[in-house]
Specification:
heterodimer, A: mainly alpha, 79% helix, B: elongated
């Protein structure tokens, strides 16, 4: 069977990606804004309060999506890293560069909302629980990728180094997760554990689901937007960028060429 | 290949100061804790496994710089990438030699520090064994970070940022093996896990290191 790879080549062309993402961006942006606002309003104002935690559980509608994204953004980055190292796709580098700060920010958001939620529920801002610890380590992994981009002098080597770091990181994430869980069962903290989640009624989990989709759309919108500016910067000398953003000047140069 | 091993060991041996510095760091960090926490036996013997493991990890992170720095500066790292032998094999040789000259001395010094920190005597074999299994993993994981940052003039802090999160599983299992032994519990499980990490590291890390070396060499 012959697989048609033309879509792949198309998507990896910065110019084509720029045009596509330009068409998608407004849709994604509005989808993100509307989904997140629906979820937040529904979750904060209309969802029934938890029978144990009362209203304090409502931060869950921010906490859950950000915690989910904290993990999946890194997996996306690792996939992009593989694509970048194997096929030398520039776009994948750009994606990693743009996604890393978003991932770090969303992980920080997950940690902060977790801390705020932890105070009323567990009585403490922070415990060295397995999940919290591995999220913290995940945050450090994001910072490492960001540091590579900040330190490397050439764009290309930074992209490839960051791709490798993402791959090595993603191989280690399950090991870290597992060992942190082991470590936690060894020195079990006094009492604090998440109480068994009650079987949620639909009015409670539906806003959460909407919020998750909304956060993914937000991630898509932010990445597309930032990737566009990165593409324009990197391709600033190419013809299509000049023609697009500097039409008068290109006209002059092309007439000079003639 | 044998020649590479001999050259590598001889080169490392001739940089005595660089080999000694991480060891001194290890000893110094360990002797800071009694000053800062408490010199009493009861307090120290409880935290001794943790101190030893954290200090050993930091010391092996500091010594990572000598793995590729000189070879990169004088161009021999680039020469290695042109060899007709697979690069990951050469990297494996380099990392093993590096561990023999930096990790092994660390393991050999550790009983002395264990005594100074009042680590229970029964836990000594487990402590040595855990370091013996764990420091190669640190060298393997660290080599990826060292290779990635070798082209940077100020790579030091970035190496820490890249490598320390990856070191955490090793610290967890290493120190918990010592803690278990100090409490008279069997530490076989933790030690076996460290051995598994070592095997996985030896198989996988040289591949990543080779890729990282190619990136570092190609960028200038």
């Amino acid at each position: 069977m012959k697989i048609n790879w033309s879509w792949f080549h198309k998507w990896t062309s910065p110019k084509w990606f720029f045009q596509m993402s330009e068409a998608w961006l407004p849709w994604l942006t509005w989808l993100a804004i509307s989904l997140i606002s629906v979820a937040v309003v529904w979750g904060l104002a209309f969802a029934p309060p938890d029978y144990q935690q009362g209203n304090s559980f409502r931060i869950f509608y921010i906490h859950l999506p950000s915690a989910i994204l904290a993990q999946s953004v890194f997996i996306f980055m690792a996939v992009a890293g593989l694509v970048s190292l194997v096929w030398r796709v520039k776009l994948a580098d750009i994606f990693i560069k743009v996604a890393a700060p978003f991932g770090a920010a969303i992980t920080l958001l997950a940690l902060l909302t977790g801390a705020i939620w932890g105070k009323p529920t567990w009585g403490t801002w922070w415990i060295w629980d397995a999940r919290l610890t591995s999220t913290l380590i995940q945050f450090f992994l994001y910072l490492g990728v960001i540091a590579i981009f900040a330190a490397m002098e050439t764009v290309e080597s930074a992209g490839r180094a960051a791709s490798l770091a993402c791959l090595v990181g993603v191989v280690n994430v399950p090991i870290i997760k597992f060992s942190v869980e082991w470590w936690n069962t060894l020195h079990q903290p006094a009492t604090f554990t998440l109480t068994e989640k009650p079987a949620m009624p639909a009015e409670m989990w539906l806003p959460a689901l909407i919020a998750i989709i909304g956060f993914y759309c937000l991630f898509g919108a932010v990445t597309f937007y930032k990737m566009q500016s990165e593409i324009i910067f990197r391709e600033r000398r190419s013809r299509w960028v000049q023609e697009r953003f500097n039409p008068d000047k290109t006209h002059v140069t092309s007439s000079e060429e003639n | 290949m044998r020649q590479l091993i001999a050259t590598e060991l001889r080169l490392l041996y001739r940089r005595k100061q660089e080999l000694v510095n991480p060891l001194l760091f290890f000893v110094l960090v360990c002797s800071l804790f009694p000053l800062a926490v408490s010199p009493e036996v009861g307090a120290l013997e409880q935290i001794a496994p943790g101190i030893l493991w954290v200090a050993a990890t930091l010391a092996s992170m500091l010594s990572l710089d000598m793995l590729f720095r000189h070879d990169y500066d004088d161009g021999s790292l680039e020469q290695l990438t042109f060899s007709d032998r697979p690069l990951y094999l050469l990297m494996l040789v380099k990392i093993v030699c590096y561990w023999l000259m930096s990790g092994l001395p660390l393991v050999l010094v550790s009983p002395l520090l264990g005594l100074m920190l009042f680590l229970p005597f029964d836990a000594m074999p487990e402590m040595i064994l855990s370091l013996l299994l764990g420091t190669p993993v640190l060298a393997m994981l660290g080599s990826v970070g060292a290779a990635l940052t070798v082209s940077l003039r100020k790579g030091g802090v970035i190496v820490a940022l890249l490598v320390l999160p990856l070191f955490m599983p090793v610290i967890i299992f290493g120190s918990s093996a010592v803690v278990a032994a100090a409490q008279g519990l069997p530490a076989t499980g933790q030690l076996l896990w460290l051995a598994a990490f070592a095997v996985a590291g030896i198989c996988l890390a040289p591949l990543a290191t080779a890729t990282a070396v190619r990136i570092a060499v190609s960028c200038d």
